[in-house]
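Each letter names a residue; structure tokens follow underneath. Both lines appear below:
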Amino acid sequence: MNLDKIPQIKHTNSDNFFLLCGPCAIEGEDMAMRIAERIVEITDKLKIPYIFKGSFKKANRSRVDSFSGIGDEKALKILRKVSETFNVPTVTDIHEVTDAAMAAEYVDVLQIPAFLVRQTDLVVAAANTGKVVNLKKGQFMSPESMQHAVTKVTDSGNEQVVITDRGTMFGYKDMIVDFRGIPTMKAYAPVVLDVTHSLQQPNQTSGVTGGRPDMIETIARAGIVTGADGIFMETHYDPSIAKSDGANMLHLDHLEKLLTNLVAIRKTVNSLK
């Protein structure tokens, strides 16, 4: 993937990691704009290439009454407004073949969820839009197996592909990150570490996914040290009221300090090459 080919992305010559960051789901225009404004301010200050993340709908839910979205077109229009207002690219995840062309009208990067990354028709549909395709590594897949998902994109004539590691299932209710996977997958495509989803604790008896947000900086630091090209994380100004994945989200107030530390580590890693 060539970052410079992503519309509106900035600071690509900074030699920093790039960042995919925002709320888990688009809950409304005010919240999306508030979060985006703060992240843009921080990433411009630190010269981090930035892509705003927000799901226009959530299809993978623990319970039928879990929040799934505010309406597809409404949420996609909010993503477009974020992009136009703050001059940043955007990413959203898709779940069905028909989502690909629809979402591609509004965003710059199409993300394939981890549970769906083996779905050939979905991956190919995303690739055929010509947008950057972000492949989430399945929690059940080895790093080596992701080369086949990448090949589905490139064989479709799209070289703009990235892999995101979001942890591997460990038992029934926990995730672990095998950092050996980062250099392994970098042989196939640039690699992003999804810090917050890697700290999920799924399959809780309550039907609401848990998490370990206290470990966010630990995992993020390790990702930079082991060569991650990018960092993915979800943030909210009040995770306790977030309608999706609040238990493993980073509070927006803590983002600047974390990113400042990661930039410092990245500079050290770069100096060792």
In short: The CA atoms of residues 149 and 199 lie 24 Å apart. The chain has one domain: 17-265.
